[in-house]
Amino acid sequence: MTKPPASLLVLFGATGDLAQRMLLPSLYDLQRDGLLPAELRILATSRAEHDDDGFRDLAARAIQSQCDGKAEPGQLRALLERMHYQSADSGSPEAMAALAARVKQLKRGDVLFHLSTAPKLYGPICEALGQHGLGGSDSRVLLEKPIGHDLASACAINDGVARVFDEDRVFRVDHYLGKEGVQNLLALRFGNALFEPLWNARHIAQVQITVAETVGVEGRGDYYDHSGAMRDMLQNHLLQLLCLTAMEPPSQFDPSAVRNEKIKVLRSLRPITGADAASHSVAGQYTAGAIGGQAVPGYRDELGRASNTETFVALRAHVDNWRWSGVPFYLRTGKRMAARSTEIYLQFRAVPHSIFGAHSRAEPNALVIRLQPEERISLELMTKKPGLDRDGLKLAQVALDLDLHDAFGAERRRTAYERLYLDALEGNGTLFVRRDETEAAWQWVDGILGAWREQGQGPRPYPAGTWGPSSAVSLTERHGHSWRD
Fold first, then answer.
1. Could you say which DSSP state residue 23 is in?
2. Euclidean distance between CA atoms 430 and 254, whole angstroms
3. What value does the mean pLDDT of the chain take?
4. Which residue among 165, 322, 324, 390 is least crowded, i.e. fewest CB within 10 A of its CB?
């Protein structure tokens, strides 16, 4: 029997940047479209001192800012009426006791605790909730990734959460999994008979996954300098995209089946350790350059101090299983790059023999799954170039494009947190990350970071507005491949 959705959302870190930019506006969008559970109430909490009305004013300003001032007054008012506020410092037993009392006053069924805080606070917050009887089977907890800084810290945080919440009541957020384009990757692979028979080493020569940003650290310098591109983006988002691209077909679209297949991919990743790090990985750090014709400072200038933190990572990875043996997976992410782009590129193997002669080259077919800035699927094929062909038939590459904005123009595009909030409120864990996934990802990444330290492999400079260090180009070209830029 399906349980009703949670009736209370407790949002920790409710005055923070993530809440203001994404969480509160997502809740407004769900309210506007009539998708929030009718009985849902929202208890916001942070260290800031507000009463209910003070927080409602803050929330209204944040939502209007994201809506360009066009929020519907009636729907905004209806959302604000659901909201309450309780100031609490997780390090204060008295404050947590007062928060727990407010939760018990407002709860009318299941409770979802969303910890939009620093991960080091997850364990203490969960411990306090458990001490006040709020960790039972009628509660679940939503955690923001990345969990920890390495495998050891991730295990410690997960252990702290597990002392209060069973694993099936822990929902670890990777917001990339809530994006429409990522959902469409699953539909493309497992909803079409055309692709799955070709989705293997016999037909695919290489896979590239790129998450490129044009922004710098944007006021997150202290966090980012402690984290870097490897921990912030690759361990987090790119490995999830790799798993969805490389995994075997799950038996059904449910939490256990999907996550069981993802963990198999992570456990099949070939370690990059020791001397292999020099030939299979590149770290970079941006220097001063130009983005969109505007001069921008280098990373160290933005940070205000010297730093050896990488703002760019490129890897040549291998999934050592029957499906993907011998196929390189090139992973690349960086800040201050030439263009904002998130895409998955699968290049098929070349035709075994061209009948058209040396004057007409047959390029390999490719499938491009673009996730941002626009959602688009493109299948690159060879066709005849128009003409009389007096000197022989000539080929040209064309793309069969599916522009999802054109195809579904009448459908409103949902933000990741709209989908993730609804799933968490309803207890559906399919799009969330299981503990063993997070720890397997950290184990693989820790091996690379350890090799960098052992080999003295620091970040190479690259000008802002480019595609990274020149050594990243060599990473692919020495194997006969090229980055798709």
1. I
2. 6
3. 91
4. 390
Task: Extract the tokens encoding 43.
Answer: 């208890």
Residues 263-302: tens digit of each pLDDT = 999 999 999 998 899 999 999 999 999 998 899 999 999 9
To 10 degrees, what angle do helices 239-246 and 180-190 make?
Answer: 20
Cβ-based burial of 403 (10 A; exposed 0-12, middle 13-18, buried ≥19)? middle
At 367, give phi and psi (nearest 5°): -115, 125
| Residue 412 CA: distances (Å) to CA of 54, 157, 405, 408 | 31, 37, 9, 8
User: Per DSSP, what are the bridge partners of residue 284?
Assistant: 312, 460
Contact 311, 300 (CB under 8 A): no
Residue 10 token pair: 């407790």
What tokens were used for 395? 């080929």
Burial of 273 (0-12, 13-18, 19+ CB in 10 A): middle
**327 neighbors 474 (Cβ within 8 angstroms):** no
Nearest-angstrom CA–CA distance, 62 and 22: 9
Looking at residue 347, its amino acid is Q
pLDDT at position 125 is 96
The predicted model gives 96-116 an average pLDDT of 95
Helical (H) or strand (E) element with 206: strand 204-212
Which pTM value belongs to this model? Answer: 0.91
To which residue do tokens 């809506």 refer?
67
Q: Tokens representing 371?
A: 């996730």
Specify whether 405 is catalytic: no
Query: Strand, helix or coil at 147?
Result: coil
Q: Residue 411: which residues within 8 A CB-CB, separation 6 or more?
A: none
Of the residues 84, 114, 237, 280, only one is catalytic, namely 237
Question: Is it the case that residue 388 has pLDDT exceeding 80?
Answer: no
Going by their DSSP bridges, the two strands 460-463 and 395-403 should be labelled as unpaired
**Residue 336, Ramachandran bin (φ over 0: left; ψ between -120 and 50: alpha; else beta):** left
CA 371/CA 358 separation, integer angstroms? 36
Q: What is the mean pLDDT of residues 119-141?
A: 95
| Token digits of residue 239 | 């490995």
Look up residue 381 and give its DSSP letter. Answer: E
Cα 270 to chain centroid distance, Å, stands at 22
In terms of DSSP bridges, do strands 41-46 and 8-12 run parallel, antiparallel, or are they unpaired?
parallel
Q: Do the bridges between strand 204-212 and strand 328-334 make them parallel or antiparallel, or are there none, so unpaired? A: parallel
